[in-house]
Amino acid sequence: MSILRNRSNAELATATVNDPRWSSVVTRDSKADGRFFYSVRTTGVYCRPSCASRLARPENVRFHATTAEAEGAGFRSCKRCRPDQPSSAEQRAAMVAEACRLIERAEEEPRLARLAARAGMSAYYFHRQFRAATGLTPKEYAAAHRSNRVRTRLSKSSTVTEAIYDAGYNSNSRFYERSNEVLGMTPTNFRAGGARTEIRFATGEFSLGSILVASSERGVCAILMGDDPDQLVRDLQDQFPRANLIGGDGEFESLVSKVVGFVEAPSVGLDLPLDVRGTAFQQRVWQVLREIPVGSTASYTEIAGRMGAPKSVRAVAQACGANALAVAIPCHRVVRNDGELSGYRWGVERKRALLDREVSA
Q1: 47 is catalytic
Q2: pTM here?
Q3: Which residue of the set 47, 78, 81, 221 is catalytic?
C-alpha cells in the first residue's frame, strides 16, 4: 500500500512541477496574483501565488482559477496573503485612480499632503506609488490635465481669459508664462486652429530615402523620413492642419543639410533648438531618450525604470511611436528587452541602418 501511495504522490508532484503555474508559486511572483490561486491539501487553505508562507510540497498543491472554485473544493482563505481580498497591487491601483479623479475634479491643484492623507500614506510613499503607476508625479499629472482642459476650453469659451480661469489657472500671467509649452503657440492662435502659426519646411534626399525638416519660430518641430517626399509633406500637413506652411529658401535648406549630415555621420553631433510638443509624460520619455549616448541602446523597460515608472513600459513605447523628431529625439536607440529591434515609425530597416552607423561611427 505504501508503495502505491508513494507512486501516487510522485505522480501528483510531477504533475504540479510540470504545470507552468508552479514556477510562479516557487518565485512568489506577484504578477501572477489574480490569474490563479493554489491550495495546499495538508493545511486546508488556498493562497495567492505571491504568498510568503513556507513553500508547500508539490504533491500537496492544487491550482484553482478563482477563489470560488477553491472554496467550493473545501479550502479556506489564507490569513497571511488574504486571497479573498483585493491584492496590494489592486489596492494601490484603486488608490492612484481615486487620486487622479480627485486631481481632475479639483478647482485648484490639490496639495501633495492632502492627496497622501486621503490615501492613508506618507507624502513620500504616496508620491513614489503615484509615479510608479502613472509615470508622472502628482504635480505633473495635474499640469497635464490642466493643459488638456485649457485646450478644450479655448475652443468653447467666449474669451481667452474665461478659458484660462475655467481650466484652473489662478491668473492670466501664470498661464501665459507656460502657454508656448502647453499649446505650442499663443492662446489666440490656438483658438484660430493654429492658422497664424508659420512653419517653414524643406525636403531632401539622403542614403536612407527622403527627409523633411520643419521649423516654427521656436525651433525644429518635425524631422520626418520616408520614401516619398510628397507623402512627407502631406504628413506635415496632417500634423499641423491649420498652420501656414512655407517652403524653405536656400538658407533654410542648409538646416536640412545639417540634419542629413548628422544622419550620415552621427559622430558630428546635432545641436538644434527644438520645438517639442507633447504631453508631460511624452516629454519626459523624449528627454530620457536624448540622454542615450550615440552608439548605445536601451530597452523600453530600462527607459521606464530610468523615469522612475517601471510599470509604464507600454506607455513608453507609445511615446516613442508618437515622436515626430527623428534622430533629434533618438527613439531608434530603443530596443526590446532581448536586444532585438521592434517597430519604428519610419521602418525597422532604417532603424537598423541608423544603429549600425552609430556603432561604427
Answers
A1: yes
A2: 0.56
A3: 47
pLDDT for 97-139, tens place per residue? 888 888 877 777 888 999 989 888 899 988 888 887 777 788 8
| CA-wise closest residue to 235 among 247, 225, 249 | 225
In this structure, how many other beta carbons lie within 10 angstroms of the beta carbon of residue 247?
Answer: 11
Using alpha carbons only, what angle is made at residue 313 by residues 271 and 359, rounded to the nearest 5 degrees? 45
Alpha helices in the chain (DSSP H): 2-18, 20-26, 67-72, 88-105, 112-119, 123-134, 138-156, 160-166, 172-183, 187-191, 229-239, 250-264, 280-290, 300-306, 313-322, 348-360
Q: Which three cell numbers stand for residue 292?
A: 542615450
Distance CA 53, CA 349 (A): 50
Retrieve residue 316's grid coordinates. 513608453
- Angle 172-183/138-156 helices, nearest 10 degrees? 90
Strands 198-206 and 209-216, by their bridges, are: antiparallel
Label the pairing between strands 198-206 and 244-247: parallel
> Whole-angstrom Cα distance, residue 359 to residue 357?
5
- Choosing from 51, 81, 221, 331, the catalytic residue is 331
**Number of other CB atoms surrounding residue 86 within 10 Å:** 12
**Which residue from 48, 60, 71 is spatially nearest to 9, judged by alpha carbons?**
60
Residue type, position 150, single letter: V
Task: Quick: pLDDT tens for 70-93.
Answer: 999 999 999 999 998 887 777 777
- Give catalytic status of residue 100 as yes or no: no
- H helices within 120-272, ranges in order? 123-134, 138-156, 160-166, 172-183, 187-191, 229-239, 250-264
Pick the closest to residue 344 from 289, 302, 304 (CA basis).
289
